[in-house]
TrEMBL record, chain A:
<keyword id="KW-0004">4Fe-4S</keyword>
<dbReference type="GO" id="GO:0051539">
    <property type="term" value="F:4 iron, 4 sulfur cluster binding"/>
</dbReference>
<dbReference type="InterPro" id="IPR009051">
    <property type="entry name" value="Helical_ferredxn"/>
</dbReference>
<dbReference type="InterPro" id="IPR051460">
    <property type="entry name" value="HdrC_iron-sulfur_subunit"/>
</dbReference>
<dbReference type="GO" id="GO:0016491">
    <property type="term" value="F:oxidoreductase activity"/>
</dbReference>
<keyword id="KW-0411">Iron-sulfur</keyword>
<dbReference type="GO" id="GO:0005886">
    <property type="term" value="C:plasma membrane"/>
</dbReference>
<keyword id="KW-0479">Metal-binding</keyword>
<keyword id="KW-0560">Oxidoreductase</keyword>
<feature type="domain" description="4Fe-4S ferredoxin-type">
    <location>
        <begin position="20"/>
        <end position="54"/>
    </location>
</feature>
<dbReference type="InterPro" id="IPR017896">
    <property type="entry name" value="4Fe4S_Fe-S-bd"/>
</dbReference>
<dbReference type="GO" id="GO:0046872">
    <property type="term" value="F:metal ion binding"/>
</dbReference>
<dbReference type="InterPro" id="IPR017900">
    <property type="entry name" value="4Fe4S_Fe_S_CS"/>
</dbReference>
<keyword id="KW-0408">Iron</keyword>
<protein>
    <submittedName>
        <fullName>4Fe-4S dicluster domain-containing protein</fullName>
    </submittedName>
</protein>
<dbReference type="Pfam" id="PF13183">
    <property type="entry name" value="Fer4_8"/>
</dbReference>
Length: 207, 749
């Protein structure tokens, strides 16, 4: 468990709802849920979730901190926005789900090998290098994330797809060597750094 | 009427009547068969010109009786309004041409139908006279309000503001009622985001300053006799003195009482001082005097509180209220916000199953509660365990688990019970119970009857009848604001559970109804639903057998008995439904314009074709409140009705005399269809029991059919709603099919 997690447990001891309000993006909306269940009923992937949104909101109010931050339910959200469109109380449910996912990751409570979480990290790292996504490298990182042997297997399985993409000029094999970046890469990187500093600052304040 | 009668008929040829029917023949029918002394045609009788034609005849030709052959009696009522004469309407438009297809082969039967309706209207006109008020009383503007809570105070203020003197009678020593001792109230104005100031002190001031309102504290009604416009009310004070008031109309605002929480042992109300009801919490909030609310047991500042919704209500369990009190969810939100306001960071949890926040600002107030960090948990509490801190066991309905929480105070959201008088029909319920279980239930109600509030000196009991669960309500769709005792209006939580704002709205409505009742009584006019009707029942004393059926069966308790046992009608208590007329076995009760004879004459003047003509006749007796409008709407929609039907509107199926049925059968009618409103528990009868009485009486019609050797299918009684636009005509057509199957009646001459 991270230091930050310990600090947060210490600070909000018995009130997880307040912790969520303070630290999770759009978390101040959680208290406004009226438990109608329309979000859960609207979610196309709902049956694959351990806890649909309505239940997550209830768990937050019931102080079930470990269960909420430890579940991979919010990582299952595909941002289809059905729940937001339908919520009679106007809760930004999709954003709350992302907010919870980010918070749990930041505290180091996200399940290991959670595919969405893994992909998100790979995507982020890829993006940070050149300020734009290098699709070839992103694909390769995904193939090889579980080791070299598995990576070769994955690559062979998608061989035909890759060839066709190259033929159709949809993928440039030269991108493997460095790849091109945004015009002002250092500007981009310092912008992101600043944003991260602000966020960290907010959390520190919360500490 | 001493003056000579003069009968005039008017045939309208507008709306296609002229094209579809032979107006000349209709005129002949009216004068030759209907014995009208004159008959005129007009191409649009409801136009200013047509109306003037009739008015001129009334003024210049001294016409006293008018027969109008045009549209349904429910159409063009403003145009055909001649209060100085007796009037009948032959329904040729909705009754004939709109329900019959336009074709040559149908022409003969359509014309026959129209001719019959003219004969019926003329015959009816012959046996009626123009109604006029009895002059039984003069206008009495005094309004009596019973109960000095927020409802009664509002009714008093509103009636006084309209210029009517008010007597406000309150049992206790001060005005204000239950709400008077509350800390704050549910907000009634936008933005509905916090509990609002209690309006009661301001209202007491307003009443004390108003010289049209006389307040009688520590007083009850020892006796209420008379009728709207001439009530004599004896007001007795605690000290033993009494005074008699002369009153025009009454508002009963006797309020509510809190449910007895000691009936909920699982929530430990009687074991722990820290388990209170919502009603009791108000006193704690007032006692806090702007500071934090303290625990009753040890005076400790409350840090966490749990509200248990629906405690002892909305439940089938023995001793629980079977209904929901409507406002208790709003009340809990309000009280939870007391804690947020007074106790700082106090944890407040509301355990609800179905959170209902009715009213304009209900939803906003709920959101305001959530904004204020009141926790709403969908869960059902099963037990409160007393101790230094209380433990509430509950089932979390979202997370599907049995769990518990610990808190300093538990508030039970218990329901409201009406503070009504004894049900005058409690004995009747015992007598009429269908099984033992029902009988035992009714017996318990009878034995646990509360003390009387009004002490009415009525033949049918001392107080307003109950509708459900002891509330003094009546059918709100059929009877907005009316109770089953004319001129006495129940308002506020005695009528149904409600909050302060609803009670104030209700009281305003009741005050206006009371004013209307007093004014109507002064003019001898009926109250809803026959508003403005001047006709009233009278009886032929020499024929009366003092059987008391009319006095027992009147749904409004309007009829008292004199020392010899003859009925006394109390015109201004009467709703003019005619249930007494239908009840009378010797047919001595009649209205000026509606009697056994007026309908009998209509029945007899339908031409009954010879048996070999193969043209059956079906008599339809349709309630004018629901069935007849349904038939009118069906006609507008072009739904076809069988050409053998002859429809007679009746005031209520309760007014139907068994003699109409036997006479019709003796006259050769082949079938009889009676259409009344839904009866019994979920009744829709405008006169409450009229339709049920009819069903009861008609259940004996089988004997009549037996003696006549006729098939029982020939007489049928249906419950018809105003929305049965397709079904009502179908019921008539079904009878035509039945007649075709079983053959024509042998009683044709």
């Amino acid at each position: 468990m991270s230091d930050l997690n310990t600090a947060m447990i210490e600070k909000y001891r018995s009130n997880f709802l307040k912790e969520v309000e303070a630290n999770v993006e759009e978390g101040e909306w959680v208290k406004m849920c009226m438990q109608c269940g329309v979000c859960s009923g609207s979610c196309p992937l709902g049956k694959h979730w351990d806890h649909p949104p309505q239940e997550i909101f209830m768990m937050i109010r019931a102080n079930k901190r470990d269960e909420v931050l430890g579940t991979d339910s919010m990582w299952m959200c595909t941002s289809c926005y059905n729940c937001i469109a339908r919520c009679p109380r106007g809760l930004p449910i999709t954003h709350i789900m992302h907010g919870l996912a980010v918070y749990s990751k930041r505290l180091g409570l996200t399940q290991k090998k959670q595919p969405t979480a893994e992909f998100s990290q790979i995507f982020w790292d890829n993006l940070m290098k050149k300020g734009r996504v290098n699709e070839l490298k992103l694909g390769l990182s995904m193939y090889f994330k579980d080791g070299f042997g598995q990576g070769v297997k994955n690559a062979m399985a998608n061989q035909k797809l890759g060839q066709n993409m190259m033929k159709a000029k949809r993928m440039n094999p030269m991108e493997f060597f460095g790849g091109h970046s945004v015009k002002d890469l250092s500007g981009f990187q310092s912008m992101v750094k600043k944003a991260q500093e602000i966020e960290e600052g907010n959390l520190k304040e919360a500490k | 009427m001493a003056d000579e009668k003069k009968f005039a008929g008017y045939v309208c040829t507008g709306c296609g009547l002229g094209e579809r029917l032979d107006a000349g023949q209709l005129e002949t029918t009216a004068t030759r068969d209907g014995k009208m002394q004159s008959c005129k045609q007009h191409e649009m009788l409801c136009s200013a010109e047509g109306v003037q034609l009739i008015k001129d005849d009334i003024a210049n030709e001294s016409v006293t009786h008018v027969m109008i052959a045009a549209c349904s009696k429910r159409a063009k009522v403003e145009a055909f309004n001649f209060p100085e004469v007796a009037m009948t309407r032959a329904n040729l438009r909705e009754g004939v041409i709109w329900v019959r297809p336009e074709s040559d082969e149908n022409q003969e039967t359509t014309q026959e139908m129209a001719d019959d309706y003219i004969r019926m209207a003329c015959a009816e006109l012959k046996s009626m006279s123009q109604p006029s008020a009895s002059g039984e009383q003069t206008l009495n503007k005094n309004i009596l309000v019973v109960g000095g809570g927020i409802t009664g105070m509002t009714a008093a203020i509103e009636a006084a503001a309209a210029g009517y003197p008010v007597h406000l009678v309150e049992k206790s020593g001060k005005l204000g009622g239950a709400l008077g001792s509350y800390y704050k109230v549910i907000p009634t104005r936008s933005p509905y985001d916090a509990p609002a100031e209690n309006p009661v002190p301001g209202m007491i001031e307003a009443i004390e300053a108003d010289d049209r309102i006389t307040v009688h504290l520590n007083s009850t009604l020892a006796k209420t006799e008379g009728a709207p416009g001439r009530f004599n009310v004896e007001v007795a004070t605690e000290s033993g003195s009494s005074e008699t008031l002369s009153i025009g109309a009454i508002v009963q605002a006797s309020g509510w009482k809190p449910y007895d929480a000691s009936q909920l042992p699982e929530f430990a109300h009687d074991k722990s001082a820290d388990v209170v009801t919502n009603h009791e919490l108000e006193a704690l909030a007032v006692a806090a005097n702007g500071g934090p609310i303290k625990r009753p047991s040890d005076g400790k500042e409350i840090k966490s509180v749990c509200f248990i919704q629906n405690a002892g209500q909305c439940s089938d369990k023995e001793g629980h209220l079977s209904y929901f009190s409507g406002v208790t969810d709003l009340v809990s939100i309000k009280q939870a916000m007391y804690f947020k306001e007074l106790n700082g960071d106090c944890d407040t949890t509301i355990l609800f199953d179905n959170l209902r926040t009715p009213g304009a600002g209900g939803e906003d107030f709920y959101r305001a509660g959530q904004q204020a960090m009141v926790t709403f948990s969908k869960g059902i509490a099963s037990e409160v365990m007393p101790g230094d801190s209380l433990t509430v066991k509950f089932e979390d309905k979202i997370l599907n688990e049995q769990t518990e929480m610990v808190c300093d105070l538990v508030v039970l959201a218990t329901g409201m019970e009406p503070n009504s008088g004894p049900d005058p029909y409690a004995q009747l319920m015992v007598d009429e119970a269908e099984d033992e279980e029902e009988k035992a239930k009714a017996q318990a109600i009878l034995e646990n009857a509360p003390p009387s509030i009004l002490n009415l000196q009525y033949r049918q009991g001392t107080d307003l009848p109950h509708l459900k669960n002891g509330f003094n309500d009546s059918h709100f769709i059929c009877f907005p604001y009316e109770t089953r005792r004319t001129g006495i209006y129940a308002a506020g939580p005695v009528r149904r559970p409600m909050d302060a704002q609803q009670a104030r709205d209700d009281a305003t409505g009741a005050a206006l109804k009371a004013i209307q009742a007093a004014e109507n009584a002064g003019l001898g006019r009926a109250a809803h639903p026959r508003s403005g009707d001047l006709s009233f029942p009278s009886f032929r004393k020499e024929g009366c057998t003092q059987c008391k059926r009319c006095t027992v069966e009147c749904p409004f308790g309007a009829i008292n008995e004199d020392e010899e046992g003859y009925p006394m009608y109390n015109e201004s208590r009467c709703r003019r439904c005619g249930t007494c007329m239908g009840a009378c076995p010797v047919r001595v009760i009649s209205f000026e314009n509606y009697s056994v004879e007026t309908v009998n004459q209509q029945i007899k003047n339908v031409e009954i074709p010879e048996e070999w003509d193969e043209k059956p006749r079906i008599l339809v007796l349709a309630c004018e409140n629901d069935a007849y409008p349904a038939l009118d709407q069906a006609a507008q929609a072009g739904v076809e009705i069988n050409p053998w039907a002859r429809v007679i509107p009746v005031r209520c199926l309760g007014s139907v005399s068994l003699s109409w049925v036997t006479d019709a059968l003796n006259n050769g009618y082949d079938g009889i269809v009676m259409m009344g409103c839904r009866r019994d528990d979920d009744y829709q009868c405008h006169f409450v029991r009229g339709s049920a009485m009819a069903a009861e009486r008609m259940s004996k019609v089988g004997d009549t059919l037996d003696t006549l050797n006729l098939e029982p299918e020939r007489v049928i009684l249906h419950e018809v709603a105003i929305t049965d636009v397709e079904r009502a005509p179908q019921l008539i057509n079904d009878m035509a099919e039945t007649v075709e199957k079983i053959g024509l009646s042998p009683f044709k001459f």
